[in-house]
Amino acid sequence: MSFPNWAPPEIIEYLTELSDYRRLGVLSEDEAAITLRFHEMWTRLITRTEMELVWRFIIGLDNQVICTLRTNGGLIATVNRAMRNYEENPKFTQRGYKEEMQEIARLADILARKLSKFSNAGASYNPFPLHSLLDSEQIERARLMMHPDILSRRRTLAPFSLTYYLPAIDKQLTRLSKNAIEEAVQQSNKLRLPRKVNDKNTFRTYFTKVIVDFFFITYADYSPSRIAIFCSVALDDPDITPNLVGKIFPLGNEEKEMLKLNKAQPED
């Protein structure tokens, strides 16, 4: 397949890799399905003519930012991860997510207090050592991460070393409970959860917010027109317009000030 001369070489290279994976037949059924979706989406993004100016904008900034197209935090990974996360993770409204975190915190705190009876320093027997919860593959990965001078000759020491170096389960659950309480409060700032998880446009809203976030943080850019083109082509949804982007993600005063400051910075 031929691509226009403005298509980023990094995306073409990525599409070639996806084609190779599909051709070799090494993917599971689920992986094959999402790989096909990625292939179709990125093909649209570098063949639709309306994307030319969007890519010229991105490429013009790509060598000035840390997260270039193919880095882990770059555009390809961000878009793909957003799609995977939406499909693979449970769906919650903001209220539902807060309630779930609060319940996790409550249960973790109860379990931590019960387990602490067995894991205090003076306890004669701990029936729940950390390494007892790890399988052989997890232990092997942990062993490779430890200092080779300590464990290279005594592989059987790995699980006991984990118990020695890592905090007891009750301590971890106490931290988990604290983290869950904090997450219940802060989640709206971090996840941009939908208000209606069963609405037919929920994924479109979620995806658009992810792209707005990425452009804003990575490129210091907020252009409803540019974002609408990208999202419309990516999802093959002509109903995504600049006006819709503005409604989905209206800028607050803080974001507006950040954009002004960025534009005021002298170029290198």
Topology:
Layout: H1 9-24, H2 29-45, H3 52-62, H4 75-88, H5 94-119, H6 136-145, H7 148-151, H8 158-165, H9 169-190, H10 202-219, H11 224-235, H12 242-248, H13 253-264
Task: Explain the overall architecture.
The chain has 268 residues and is mainly α. 66% of the residues lie in helices and 0% in strands. It has 13 helices and no strands. It has helices spanning 9-24, 29-45, 52-62, 75-88, 94-119, 136-145, 148-151, 158-165, 169-190, 202-219, 224-235, 242-248, 253-264. Helix 1 runs antiparallel to helix 2 (29-45) and helix 5 (94-119) packs antiparallel against helix 9 (169-190). The longest helix is centred in the middle third of the chain and has 26 residues, at 94-119. It is globular, with a radius of gyration of 24 Å.
Average pLDDT level: 80
Low-confidence stretches: 264-268
Q: Note the gap between the termini.
A: 38 Å
* Alpha plus pi helix count: 13
Q: What are the secondary-structure elements, in order, as H or E?
A: HHHHHHHHHHHHH
What's the total count of β strands? 0
Helix content: 55-70%
